[in-house]
Every structure is written in structure tokens, then in C-alpha cells.
Amino acid sequence: MLEVQSTSTPDRLLRILIVEDNLADADLYVRNLKRAGFEVIPDIVQAPGEFVEKLSNERYALILCDYRLGGWTGMDALLTLRQLDKDIPFILISGTVGEDLAVEFIKKGAADYVLKDRMARLPLVIRRALEEKSLREARRRFEEELRASEERYRDLVENANDIVYTLDLQGNLTSFNKAGERITGYNRDDILEHSLGEIMQPDQLALMQEMLKRKLAGQKVTAYEIQITAKDSSTVVLEVSSRLIYKDGKPVGVQGIARDVTERKRAEAELRKGEALFRAVVETALDCIISIDHTGKITEFNPAAERTFGYTRDSVLGRDLAETIIPRSLRERHRKGLERYLDAAEGPVLFKRVEFTAMRADGTEFPVELSISPIPQQGQPVFTAYLRDITERKQAEREREMLISELQDALAKVKTLSGLLPICAWCKKVRDDHGYWSQIEVYIEQHSDAAFTHGVCPDCVRRMYPEIR
Q: Does domain 285-389 have CATH number 3.30.360.10?
């Protein structure tokens, strides 16, 4: 082994394999490299077996090889290197090699050759060989990264949930992923043989062509929707986003992503239908329908509520319910009930029919029958109240109770009546012992000391004299 002396910076350190049966010549190679500023770590071999062993167990920056070796040649060494699939710059060094043989070496993969009487060229040849190797490695890494990137792209495209496609500028499909097959029902090979006009209605094809014209004109085109006809003749709604493909600065096609929004559009239509139905019910309901959010702010106020409370819908939306329709004396109870539900998801009046006192816009109070239902949703709940003005019902109940009280007072004054009296459930006439029917006051006068004064009750006044208010 030759003595090695460090004569340069580490980035010029070379571990080289010298295939040479003349040690003096090997020493000459090393001295030339050191004078050129390289730091050399050489291994010298002479026999084929040593050559293979070193290549199998060590890593080298380059190989310097004589042509004539004892029992074998530099060509044998080069072919062995290729068989081992080692990318190591191979430089032939010889004093007798001719131009034809040198060219043959280059064709077989040698980096270059140097004549022994021109050793001053060796450092230059080595630098060029190392640069070429560096370029090969960079190109190899680039190609590997490119293949990996293309593989990732193909994998992404093939496994995407959306259709990924390309078109030429004539509108012919040039690529189509698996999602396209699944969504449209067309086999990839089949669809690539069809034009878009075969799977799109004329108006939809015209829309897509118009979007392409705008792109070619430099206009910004956002996502748009088109309809296509699937293989089973069903209509598929696609949300399309696309970009132009350029080659040498000129547009040559379109790459696009199309998302199947058929179910979403159907759901939106159903939602609009449901909202329209809900709005119709709310608008035509005879009872008041009032909704509030979790803070107590009014979010719905139907026409019946407008008529009952004297507010317009627009004037109360966003206002606090308690400050709007609840009497001052009951507002604190309302707020505590709302807080209780938000804390514990329960309330004393929820899902029940209760009577309550409400307040109109002019400050007058009146009785209502109330039912409140919470409506769960993402985030905080909302509440919907159904209210009915029961002023007339409460008035009728008071009149009925008054009539019953008067009748009870009258009967209390009867002194001779006893036992069961047959009385008509409808007109209130009483049957006497002889089977005759008489007005109850006539019967009572005949069988007691009671006397009657006559008047007209409010109900009868309204029936008999409707013009009186």
C-alpha cells in the first residue's frame, strides 16, 4: 500500500481503486493527483479476484485501470464492473492503446482514457469524469423523484372521490379516472371513444363550451354546474372546476375536477320544499307561532302573532321576547325558566299546555294558552311557542259560572220542591206530575213561594240584537 499524505481539502478526498500490475506506475498516478490538489486513498489490485472482492466490499469514487495486466486486460475489468452494475467512473491508463481500442472502451462504458506519456491530463480527466457521474446521479435522483411524483399523482387521481378528467380543445375526453367510471357508469375505454355531446344535452354542452371560451379569452371562470346523462339514462349533476393545460406556452387542453352533487341538489330541493311548506303553515296558522333563540331573541313571528299582539314581524325580529310580549311581573320567571333549560335541559312548561298572561303592544294584558317545544340543533337550541288568545273563552267561562251561581241561588230559595224533577237537558223545561212541560220559572212559581224578575243575558242580547255592540 502506498503512503497517503493529506494535501487538500476534504471535499477533494478520493478513494480510488487502481488496477495495475506495475506498482511504480500506480505510484505515478497517485503523485499526479496529489500535485493536482486531490487527497487520495488508493487501493491497488492486480488479479481479477481481488478486483471483484474490492468492488463487492468497498466504495470507490473512481477506478484507474491499466490495459495490459498479467493474464487479463482492462477490457475484462470494465466488463466485470458492468456485470456488477456499479456506476463508478472507469478511466483507462495505457502506454500502447490505440485510438480504435480507446473508442471501444468508451462504447463499453469507460469514462475516458489517458496515455501514460501524457499523465498531466489525468487530473482534468478525473474532474470531468466525477462531474459526469454527479450529473448522472442528479439526473437519476430527479427521474426517481419524477416517477415517484407521477405514481403519487396517479394514485391520487385513481383513488379520488371526484371525477378527474382531461379534454382536448375540441371537447374530446382524453383521460378519465375510476371515480368517473363509478359515477357515470361508463367503462373508461368506452367513454374515451365518445365526445361530450353524446353524454350531455345540447344546452349543457353549450354551457361547457362557453366556459372554455371564457378561459381561452383569459377570463376568470369559477366553478359551475352541468348535467350529464349516465349510462343508465339517469341525470347526474356535476360541479366542475377546471384549468387550461399548456404546452410550449400555448393551451392544448383542459384538466378538470367534477364533483357529483346530485344528492346534494336533491336534498336542497327537498329542503326548499320543506321550508316552503313550513312557511305556508306558519303564515296561515290561526294560532300565534313565535320562535326564539337560546338568548331569548325573537326569530319568528307569524301573521297570527302580528294580529294578536299588534306588532309587525319586522319590528320584533331580534328583540327580546320578555321585553316584548311578557308582562313586567312575569319576565324574571321567564328568564329563569330559559336558564334552567340551558343548564339542565328541562323546564316546567315544556311540552305542556299551560295558561299564561301575555301583553300586547299597547300594554294591555290578556290570557293565552301556551305550548313550548325546544328544537335541538347544532350548537344552542331554539324554542317555538304556540299561543292562542283565550280571552273570549275565559269570558264565556265566567258567564257560565255566573249563570250556575244564579241558578243555585234561585234553587236555594225553593221551599216545597223535593225528589227528582224531570228536566229537558236542552231547553230546561220541567215536566209536572200530569205529564205537561213548563218553563222552569213557571214550575217553580207554582210549587214554591219564589218569584222571578226578568232580564236579558249578554248572550241573548248578542243573538237578538246583533247591531248592538
A: no
